[in-house]
Design goal:
The structure holds two protein chains of two kinds. Helices cover 31% and strands 22% of the residues of chain A. By secondary structure, chain A is α/β, with parallel strands linked by helices. Chain A has an eleven-stranded mixed beta sheet with strand order 5-4-6-8-1-9-16-15-10-11-13, sandwiched between helices. In chain A, strands 2-3-7 form a three-stranded mixed beta sheet, with no helix packed on it. A two-stranded antiparallel sheet of chain A has the order 12-14. In chain A, helix 8 links the parallel strand 10 and strand 11. In chain A, helix 3 runs parallel beside helix 4 (116-127) and helix 5 (142-155) crosses helix 10. The two termini of chain A are 18 Å apart. The model of chain A has no long low-confidence stretch (mean pLDDT 97). Chain B has one domain (3-195): Thiolase/Chalcone synthase (Peroxisomal Thiolase, Chain A, domain 1). The chains are: A alpha/beta, B alpha+beta. Chains A and B meet through helix 4, strand 5, helix 5, helix 6 and helix 7 of A and helix 3, helix 5, strand 5 and helix 6 of B.
C-alpha cells in the first residue's frame, strides 16, 4: 500500500490568511476569540469571526476572477495558493468537508444554492478539476474524516494526489442551535479546565495538498480510523468507546504504540462532557503521559473546518519542533490526569495524533508521522 | 470478490426487498407511512418517534436490510443529494424572524446528515467505520471504491451502502449490504442495474 504525505497547507482564519501567519500568531499566544456582535436576539458572543473588510481586501489581492458566496470565497482563498504551486492533473481529487456549507442561502429561501454539491461544483469548475468532487458532511469530525477518505482513495489507486478543503461559516443558523443546546460559554472557552462551561464558535477554511510523493519535510498520514460510538446522537459516550477504538485502530495501522506518541491534538471543545470523555479515552489508550492540547482556545470551534485546521497546526508544530499551550487552561478539571500543555516549549515531535469527535457519535483519528 | 447479498428500496409508498414488492403503504402522507411501517416491525423503540423524517426512513430501511444479521462489524456508508436540508429548512424557519424566534435543540440536532448514521449505529450497536457523502446523484464510483477499501483492508466485515433522499415532498431510499457472499457481484455495473 502506498504511503500518503501532507505537503502544502493553507489556513484562512481571523488570525490570518496563510498557514505561516496563523502559526506565528499562535506562537505569540494570540487568540481570535473576542466579543462579537450578531443580529438580535443572538447579540454579543465570544467568537472567532473573520473580519469581512480585511478578508475582502485579501481576496481582491488574490486577483481571482471568482464570483460567489462568502463561504465559496473562503474556499477559493484557501485553495488558490496551493493550486498555483502544485497544479492539477486529470486524476487529482478534490474533497470538500463542511457541516453546513452555504446554509446562508436559506435566509433568502434559496434551497438550491444551499445544496453542498452546488458549492463543491462551483469550486470544481472554477479551478478546472476534471473529476467529480467528493463532499464529506460528518458533523465536527468532517475535516479529519475528509483527510482519511482522501488517503484511502489514493491508496486504492484512484488518484496520485488530492486537495482537501474544510470550511464552515459562522452564521445565526449555527449559533442559534448551539445556544438552544445551552452548550455555549459566555466567556473565552477553557478546554479541560475545572471551570470550563462550554464552547465558543468560530469560522475558518483549511486546505491541504496530499500525494504519494515523499519530499523533505513532508508528513505521512500513517494511520486513520473513523469509529462511531453507537451510544448517543448529541452527547459523547461516557466510556469514550468510539474514540478509544479509533485511536487503537489508527495506531495499529501506523504500527506504533502509545509510548511512541509525542503529541496529541485533541478535540477539546470545552464542554463538560466532551473533555471528560477524552480524558477517559486517553486513560484507556495509555496516553496519559503524552503532552496534549486543544486549539479551540485560539479559534473556537470551527465545526467542519476544525479537524483539518488543527491537523495543519499539528503539522506546523511537528516541523517547528514546538508544543503550543492549550490556552484557557489553568487547573485540570477532568477525571484522569492528562498532560495539558501550559506553555510553549521545544520538543521533537516524530509522531502525533489528531483526534476529533462530534454529533452523531462520530470520532475520527489520524496518525501523523515524520 | 465481494457480493451484494440483499437490497432494500423505499419509493412511491412501497418497500421493495431484492427488487420484489414487500410492503405497500395505505397512506401517501410521509409521516403516517413511516409510522405505519414502524408499527409493522413490532418493535419497542420509542426513540423512533423523536427522529426527523430522514432518520425515520434510514431506520426503517436498515431494519429491513439488517433483519437476521448477527455481525457487529458492519460499516455504514450513507449518501444523498441534500444532506439535512429537509430539517435545516425547519430550523431556519424557527429563527427567521425575531418576533417568532424559537430554535429547538430537538430539531437542531437533526441538522446534520450523519445523524442518520448515528441512529442506525445506536439501534444495531455498530461501533464501526462510517461516512456520509453528499452528491447530486448516487456516487456509484466513490461508494464502490470506498466499500472495497473497507472490506479489503479488514476495516469491516460487511458494509451497508445507502442513498437516503428526503426533501420536502420527495423521498427515496436505497440500501444494500456488501459482504463476501451473495448472489450479485459487487460491481459498478450491478449497482447501476439494481439502483433504479
Amino acid at each position: 500500500m502506498q504511503n500518503v504525505y501532507i505537503h502544502q497547507t493553507n489556513i484562512i482564519s481571523p488570525l490570518g490568511f496563510s498557514t505561516a501567519k496563523n502559526f506565528m500568531e499562535l506562537c505569540n499566544g494570540k487568540t481570535a476569540l473576542q466579543p462579537t456582535q450578531f443580529t438580535e436576539p443572538i447579540g454579543s458572543i465570544f467568537a472567532g469571526k473573520i473580519d469581512k473588510d480585511i478578508f475582502q481586501e485579501h481576496f481582491s489581492s488574490l486577483n481571482s476572477a471568482f464570483v460567489g458566496s462568502t463561504i465559496e470565497q473562503y474556499i477559493v482563498a484557501a485553495l488558490l495558493p496551493l493550486i498555483q504551486q502544485k497544479g492539477l492533473s486529470e486524476n487529482t481529487l478534490f474533497i470538500l468537508s463542511t457541516t453546513k456549507g452555504n446554509i446562508k442561502a436559506l435566509e433568502q429561501n434559496n434551497i438550491q444554492a444551499a445544496h453542498l454539491f452546488e458549492t463543491a461544483n462551483h469550486i470544481k469548475n472554477y479551478f478546472g478539476f476534471s473529476r467529480k468532487p467528493i463532499v464529506v458532511s460528518n458533523a465536527c469530525v468532517s475535516g479529519v474524516m475528509a483527510l482519511s477518505i482522501a488517503k484511502r482513495f489514493i491508496q486504492m489507486n484512484q488518484a496520485k494526489d488530492a486537495y482537501v478543503v474544510a470550511v464552515d461559516e459562522l452564521l445565526p443558523f449555527i449559533i442559534s442551535g448551539f445556544q438552544s443546546f445551552q452548550a455555549m460559554s459566555n466567556q473565552r472557552c477553557k478546554p479541560y479546565d475545572e471551570t470550563r462551561n462550554g464552547v465558543n464558535l468560530g469560522e475558518a477554511a483549511a486546505a491541504v495538498y496530499i500525494s504519494t510523493a515523499k519530499e523533505d519535510n513532508s508528513i505521512e498520514i500513517a494511520g486513520d480510523a473513523n469509529i462511531n460510538d453507537a451510544n448517543h446522537i448529541s452527547g459523547p459516550s461516557r466510556t469514550g468507546e468510539g474514540l478509544v477504538l479509533s485511536i487503537e485502530k489508527a495506531m495499529q495501522e501506523a504500527k506504533i504504540t502509545a509510548s511512541m506518541v509525542d503529541f496529541v491534538s485533541l478535540h477539546g471543545t470545552a464542554t463538560v462532557y466532551n473533555d471528560e470523555m477524552e480524558s477517559i479515552a486517553l486513560q484507556r489508550t495509555n496516553l496519559l503521559d503524552v503532552p496534549v492540547n486543544s486549539f479551540k482556545g485560539y479559534y473556537g470551534h470551527t465545526l467542519g473546518a476544525s479537524g483539518l485546521l488543527e491537523t495543519v497546526l499539528t503539522v506546523e508544530c511537528m516541523k517547528h519542533h514546538v508544543l503550543l499551550p492549550s490556552i484557557g487552561f489553568e487547573k485540570i478539571g477532568v477525571s484522569h490526569p492528562i498532560q495539558v500543555i501550559k506553555e510553549k516549549k521545544s520538543k521533537t515531535i516524530d509522531v502525533a495524533l489528531k483526534t476529533a469527535s462530534g454529533f452523531g457519535g462520530s470520532n475520527s483519528v489520524i496518525v501523523l508521522k515524520k | 470478490m465481494y457480493y451484494i447479498s440483499k437490497y432494500i428500496e423505499i419509493k412511491e409508498g412501497c418497500i421493495y426487498k431484492n427488487g420484489e414488492l414487500e410492503m405497500q403503504s395505505s397512506t401517501s402522507d410521509f409521516s403516517d407511512m413511516m409510522k405505519e411501517w414502524y408499527k409493522s416491525l413490532h418493535l419497542s423503540y420509542p426513540k423512533f418517534y423523536k427522529m426527523d423524517d430522514l432518520c425515520k426512513m434510514a431506520f426503517i430501511a436498515s431494519e429491513r436490510l439488517l433483519e437476521g444479521e448477527t455481525s457487529k462489524e458492519i460499516a455504514l456508508l450513507f449518501s444523498n443529494s441534500e444532506a439535512s436540508l429537509d430539517t435545516d429548512i425547519k430550523h431556519q424557519q424557527s429563527i427567521q424572524t425575531t418576533d417568532a424566534y424559537f430554535p429547538s435543540p430537538a430539531i437542531f440536532v437533526y441538522t446534520l446528515p450523519n445523524i442518520t448514521i448515528g441512529e442506525v449505529s445506536i439501534r444495531h450497536q455498530l461501533k464501526t467505520e462510517s461516512a456520509f457523502l453528499v452528491s447530486d446523484e448516487y456516487p456509484i464510483e466513490e461508494m464502490h471504491t470506498y466499500t472495497e477499501y473497507l472490506l479489503q483492508h479488514k476495516k469491516a466485515e460487511k458494509v451497508v451502502c445507502a442513498w437516503i433522499h428526503k426533501l420536502e415532498n420527495s423521498y427515496h431510499a436505497f440500501f444494500y449490504l456488501v459482504e463476501n457472499q451473495g448472489d450479485l457481484p459487487h460491481t459498478k455495473q450491478i449497482i447501476n442495474k439494481i439502483f433504479i
